[in-house]
Amino acid sequence: MQGPLQHIRVLDLTIARAGPTAVRLLADWGAEVIKIEPPPRKDIAGQSVTGGRRGPDEQNLHRNKRSLAINLKDPAGQALLHRLAQSADIVVENFRSEVKYRLGVDYDTLKAINPRLIYASISGFGQDGPYANRPGVDQIVQGMSGLMSVTGNPGQGPMRVGVAISDTSAGMFLGQGILLALLHRERTGEGQWVHTSLFEAMLAKLDFQGARFTMSGEVAEQQGNDHPTQVPMGTFLAADGYVNIAAYGSHMWRRFCDALGADELFAHPDYQSVAERVARRDEIKRDMNAVTQQFSVAELVQRLNTEGVPCGPINTIAEGFSDPQAEHLRMAKPAPHEVLGDLQLVRSPINMSRFPHPDQFTNAAPDPGADSAAVLRDLGFSADEIAELQTNSVIAS
Fold it and tell me: Mean pLDDT over residues 118-137, rounded?
């Protein structure tokens, strides 16, 4: 694949979701990604949190990569990984600390082999500190970071976000860190260790609600489908369903009332200023619902957007991907798989004028170890060397 990272070689040692999310960014933009993983078991489906390699989760995480299965518990496997690290630009891992030292894939070891190497790590809670050795998964971190305390309806208990938000956020942050390290290396020739964690990512993702606490000690609470500070902004009733509407601010409020002919609502003495509308969040939502229920979802979307008031339907995932704008953007595109055929996977949301998205992914996610011999051959290993590694079960045959 042609792309801004086509000169970059990545050794991907990651498992689960957060690490692969970071590597996917690199693979989608042209990097040569070699996924290093254990020799495959007979059961392709496996038991990982992301399911089997041929399932939708791992296909979406590991497209545009090649798989080299190495037994890193074998000293010969560790020696092979060290040899690969000599020509790698980036190594990405999410092992527990004791595991990466035991396997000889820690930063200090690989830095001694290749000082220009960018070594990228992701963990649950950070590389040091009192929780450094704790296992960390999305659900636990959503709760510990405070995210679940501001998600859901007031009085109904904490609620998790419906996607793996800490995994994917940490992966995106690590991907950004890797790109920053590449820019630094271009200028200085120096590699470095880049790392983040699910916990750091979620605390950062709290964003303005986090800053409300760090600056003033204010602890945000659950607001359900309403915006925590902007009023009115939230979910409203239509004659045939629900819509999201953002009519905050004086100009938006006037446009909302004009678009729906809500003259009495606009003239209501309790809603004449932003401060008054904020102070009467529940009352104004009740009165707005009385107006919006007179219109269908389609009518509200058309009327309000025409007047410049943001409004949208509440879609299912199927409806989201079938939306005319999503189809225009081609957010799903095919990835060829030699067994499963063309798979529709979700493309990167980044758009670059010099590197338009190709019509399809280079390849779907390979079965574990499917490219072992081919990868080593491309890296200059002889046929005899490859055969010996296969015979000794160092790599998949």
Answer: 96
